[in-house]
Amino acid sequence: MNFNLSEEQAMIKDSIARFVADNYNFEKRRKNVAMEQGFNPAYWQTFAELGWLSIPFPESLGGFGGGAVDTMVIMEELGKGLVAEPYIATVLLFGGLLAQSGEGELQQKLISQIIDGSLQGGFAYLERQSRFELSDIKTSASAQGDHYCLNGEKTVVFNGPVADQLIVSVRTSGEQCDEKGISLFLIDPAAEGVSLTDYRLMDGQRVANISLVNVLVSKEHLIGELDQGYSLIEAVVSKTMLAISAEALGIMQKLTSTTVEYSKTREQFGTAIGRFQVLQHRMVDMFIATEQVRSLLYRAVCSADANNDDAEKDLRALKVLVGRSGKLIGGEAIQIHGGMGMTDELDVGHYVKRLMMINTTFGDADYNQQKFSALANS
């Protein structure tokens, strides 16, 4: 099988790598994360000007028409730089739901604004009781004439504090955990009855808990079909799981290379610690774990593009490996760096924190192991 990138994909990879090298050293990253938005708006406009925001969208909606491989290339390079700009929240989740739901006037308008960098979005899907189950939804929507009345609470909404528009998953029929009966609505965070509580996660990204009290939403703002939102969520989340796994691969590569370079310069007992065989073995373990993630990522991406029967099983296996390898690589990187690895002033700890957040996004390793086992035994 040919794993070489196409000419266009190689150009995308090189352009992002250059941007990260020129504009995203660790000190600049710290300043970007400390901004009110949690990222640098000027860099987001650069993403738009370079066409990166258009890549996942179909050509019929003004995009580049990229697939899973293109997204993988983007996210791997962004991971190496620990880039804070909300590509996942705005482009892959919010934009992905719009693109998957059809090509109506509303979708055309909003996606064009995402592509030109003028619109920030978010997807509110988690609730306090739901843990990792996408179908566990208590937030309700009841029909009232030409509108729906929304009531409930959503938690840990990525990019929620700065989103101009949000897509919210609600229950329009059925029981709490039923897959059927889930609908998606587009809401304005500034609308009457919507209140936000924003905070930062351990990796620095800003998120929000959102309360909805008698929020009226026009029926025209229904995204997709009534009661059929779960299949839309599942498709977009699967693509995003591949993307964050690619981001994790970029982080793992960065941690491994950084640790190897540090071992060549840090001296103990009059010699570089990289000469100690026991540490060499541990760094080899880091390298092997990284390459295992790369191999399974390629398999999962190929399965997704081919839409074959093993696509979901490969995806679940990948998420398990990302969680377990991330723990191994992060732990070894911190230990080999010694006390410095625990400090906020060194980038190693920040990369490890992001790996920990990736592990818990859309289900941790244990949760996805259970899903994989169920698929394998079915």
From TrEMBL:
GO molecular function terms attached to this record: acyl-CoA dehydrogenase activity; flavin adenine dinucleotide binding
Gene3D superfamilies: Acyl-CoA dehydrogenase/oxidase, N-terminal domain, Butyryl-CoA Dehydrogenase, subunit A, domain 2, Butyryl-CoA Dehydrogenase, subunit A, domain 3
Acyl-CoA dehydrogenase/oxidase N-terminal domain segment(s): 6-117
Keywords: FAD, Flavoprotein, Oxidoreductase
Stretches assigned to the Acyl-CoA dehydrogenase/oxidase C-terminal domain: 228-363
Limits of the Acyl-CoA oxidase/dehydrogenase middle domain: 123-208
Superkingdom, natural source: Bacteria
CDD domains found in the cross-reference section: ACAD
Cofactor(s) needed: FAD
InterPro entries: Acyl-CoA_Oxase/DH_mid-dom, Acyl-CoA_Oxase/DH_mid-dom_sf, AcylCo_DH-like_C, AcylCo_DH/oxidase_C, AcylCoA_DH/ox_N, AcylCoA_DH/ox_N_sf, AcylCoA_DH/oxidase_NM_dom_sf
Homology family: Belongs to the acyl-CoA dehydrogenase family.
Name listed for the protein in its UniProt record: Acyl-CoA dehydrogenase
Species name: Pseudomonas pohangensis
Phylogenetic lineage: Bacteria, Pseudomonadati, Pseudomonadota, Gammaproteobacteria, Pseudomonadales
